[in-house]
């Protein structure tokens, strides 16, 4: 089927804005031209891509399926354009990174500062998602690369993984749990206490649930949250025992909480930089990764 690729571009902007008028503004063409392009595409594909009424535009099931394929292609074209426009002296350009807010705050922040001081004209854009959802961003072509917890079962064979940082998960508690200080507590004993964890469908949750299941234990957290920082704060006010990465701990925090040692050794995990194997990174992207790996 030979369909003008420009029609798919029009479809992408209508599908992502859900507005014919907004798409026309972004494309610098008339609204009637946008409408005609969509009608032509629907005719060529013999399907309806949008539900239209006087109040709003929505994607049909077929439209949603098409967007899943078109969005990575459009992002790939945009990335190619940006790469070509970069100068080899790195006087301009953009890097789009996907990472969790925890990884950004505790791991990447010094690299952002260092990179910006050396290449102030390179624009850094960061999208914060969980490590699992960051893989989806990479698949869609919405980011150049991601920094994620490993292992991450969503990473596919078409992706390149570069490990760069080892860390351990630790349990922390406040003064109300002082009877555990200095002891080695079994996981079986630990589940008798109120446990505070990251929400399900995160790499951390999947990992720690696997650890407990391997011991024949069922983990039922008292509270599940989306933020490591909140887990730390709740531990400080004695709402329960939180599981956090060790890189979040510092001397100041240890004034309010303490590490609760377990008899069972939790395996080290790592952080990794993940990119697509078949898509070359921009000069700026490669340089930023070098800053991390060096």
TrEMBL record:
PROSITE patterns, A to Z: HTH_LYSR
Chain ranges of the HTH lysR-type domain: 3-60
GO molecular function terms listed in the Swiss-Prot or TrEMBL record: DNA-binding transcription factor activity; transcription cis-regulatory region binding
Entry superkingdom: Bacteria
One Pfam family matching this protein: LysR_substrate
Keywords: DNA-binding, Transcription, Transcription regulation
Family in the record: Belongs to the LysR transcriptional regulatory family.
PANTHER family (UniProt xref): HTH-TYPE TRANSCRIPTIONAL REGULATOR, HTH-TYPE TRANSCRIPTIONAL REGULATOR CITR
Name this polypeptide is given: LysR family transcriptional regulator
Organism: Vallitalea guaymasensis
Lineage of origin: Bacteria, Bacillati, Bacillota, Clostridia, Lachnospirales
């Amino acid at each position: 089927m030979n369909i003008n690729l420009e029609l798919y571009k029009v479809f992408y902007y209508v599908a992502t804005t859900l507005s014919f008028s907004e798409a026309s503004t972004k494309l610098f063409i008339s609204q009637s031209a946008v409408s005609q392009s969509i009608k032509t595409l629907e005719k060529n594909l013999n399907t309806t891509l949008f539900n239209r009424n006087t109040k709003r535009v929505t994607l049909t099931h077929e439209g949603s399926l098409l967007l899943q394929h078109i969005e990575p292609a459009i992002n790939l074209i945009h990335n190619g354009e940006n790469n070509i426009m970069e100068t080899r002296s790195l006087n301009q350009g953009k890097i789009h990174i996907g990472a969790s807010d925890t990884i950004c705050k505790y791991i990447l922040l010094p690299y952002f500062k260092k990179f910006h001081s050396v290449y102030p004209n390179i624009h850094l854009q960061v999208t914060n998602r969980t490590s699992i959802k960051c893989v989806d961003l990479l698949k869609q072509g919405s980011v150049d690369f991601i920094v994620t917890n490993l292992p991450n079962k969503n990473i596919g064979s078409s992706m390149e993984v570069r490990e760069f940082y080892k860390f351990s998960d630790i349990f922390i508690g406040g003064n109300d749990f002082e009877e555990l200080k200095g002891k080695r507590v079994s996981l079986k004993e630990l589940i008798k206490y109120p446990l505070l964890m990251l929400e399900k469908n995160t790499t951390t949750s999947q990992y720690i649930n696997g650890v407990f299941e391997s011991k024949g234990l069922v983990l039922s957290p008292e509270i599940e949250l989306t933020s490591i920082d909140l887990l730390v704060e709740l531990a400080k006010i004695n709402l329960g025992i939180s599981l956090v990465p060790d890189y979040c701990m510092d001397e100041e925090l240890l004034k309010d909480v303490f590490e609760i040692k377990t008899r069972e050794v939790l395996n080290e995990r790592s952080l990794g930089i993940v990119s697509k194997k078949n898509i070359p990174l921009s000069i700026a992207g490669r340089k930023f990764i070098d800053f991390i790996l060096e």
